[in-house]
Design a protein that fits this description.
The structure is a single chain. This protein has 14 helices and 2 strands; from the N terminus they run H-H-H-H-E-E-H-H-H-H-H-H-H-H-H-H. By secondary structure, the chain is mainly α. The protein has a two-stranded antiparallel sheet with strand order 1-2. Helix 3 runs antiparallel to helix 4 and helix 9 packs parallel to helix 14.
Length: 318
């Protein structure tokens, strides 16, 4: 029972981290129809900027400033880059953001090198908040949970309960009408892109001390973020939250499991072969759930696309 509770907490932490990262991408897509391949790169920039700021001003100042810097950079990318290719369709947008991701990765390696940065959680959160059996739960993990839930509630409130949220949603479907009413639609889109990248930067600030700050961190989570929003439904904030939690708990419980597929094969009447010389037979009978844990989200994505192409909560086909 203790192990189950620990896995629930760890899965919640990982899932909400995925939500913080995918929420910005979901926001950008739902309001602009743009799939930003460089989104995970802004996540990486958030971690590196926070690390650099923390060297001089501490973790908390980096937590405040780094997402703002990343958001301003994102707004600049939309204003002076993405806006110029937007009129040519989605393919040029994807090529542009893909090239931007490569450029950011090269710049990070040029400025900070290839080694992992010594970026850690603040001293005030370096303690075990409580224990579950023999397992201590770090205060920083609970801090991550509260920050992530705060981001979700704030986004939900702004998008559904405020005039700004209504203008943003109306600008996507009826841009000319919104512009005729006196709103600056290009400015709205630039602000949305900036906020989306700022959320990615905030995720990097929070995740950097726990997952490590290194040049490959964007690649490590980049693909799983797109899997998350496809499962949840493109453009759905609730879908991003549900999918993130599903993936978080799925991968966490799989990694901690001792389940072997040989048990299933024996249960359905198959006999263990005497000759295990063939690699595929040996792999089949010795395969364990932790070994395939990393690919479970991709299997779930394929199943969701077959059964429900627009995702769990989405209104656009993936």
């Amino acid at each position: 029972m203790d192990l189950i509770l620990v896995n629930v907490i760890d899965g919640l932490v990982y899932g909400l981290l995925l939500f913080m990262l995918s929420a910005g991408l979901t926001l950008i897509f739902s309001m602009m129809g743009v799939l930003n391949f460089a989104h995970a790169s802004f996540y990486m920039l958030g971690a590196y900027f926070a690390y650099q700021i923390s060297l001089y001003l501490g973790f908390w100042v980096g937590l405040l400033i780094a997402p703002i810097v990343v958001g301003v950079m994102g707004a600049g990318v939309e204003r002076y880059g993405l806006r110029r290719v937007h009129k040519y369709g989605h393919v040029p947008e994807l090529i542009f953001t893909f090239g931007l991701a490569l450029l950011i990765e090269e710049l990070v390696q040029f400025l900070w090198g290839n080694n992992q940065m010594a970026y850690f959680e603040p001293e005030v959160l370096k303690f075990a908040l409580f224990s579950v059996g023999d397992n201590a739960v770090a205060a920083y993990k609970i801090f991550m949970i509260f920050v992530s839930m705060g981001i979700f509630l704030a986004l939900l409130y702004v998008l559904t309960r405020t005039r700004v949220g209504m203008v943003i949603q109306a600008a996507l479907s009826y841009p000319h009408t919104v512009e005729a009413l006196g709103h600056n639609v290009p400015m709205v889109f630039m602000g949305v892109f900036g906020v989306g990248t700022a959320l990615a930067g905030l995720a990097g600030v929070i995740a950097g001390p726990m997952l490590g700050t290194f040049p490959g961190m964007a690649i490590m989570l980049g693909s799983i973020v797109f899997v998350t929003i496809v499962i949840g439904g493109l453009g759905s904030l609730w879908g991003a939250l549900v999918a993130s939690l599903l993936i978080g708990w799925m991968t966490t419980f799989a990694a901690a499991s001792s389940f072997q597929f040989a048990d299933i094969l024996l249960a359905i009447g198959m006999e263990r072969p005497d000759d295990m010389s063939e690699s595929y037979i040996r792999d089949l009978w010795t395969m364990t759930l932790p070994q395939i844990g990393p690919i479970l989200p991709y299997i779930l994505m394929v199943l969701i696309l077959v059964i429900r192409p627009h995702g769990l909560f989405g209104k656009r086909d993936a």
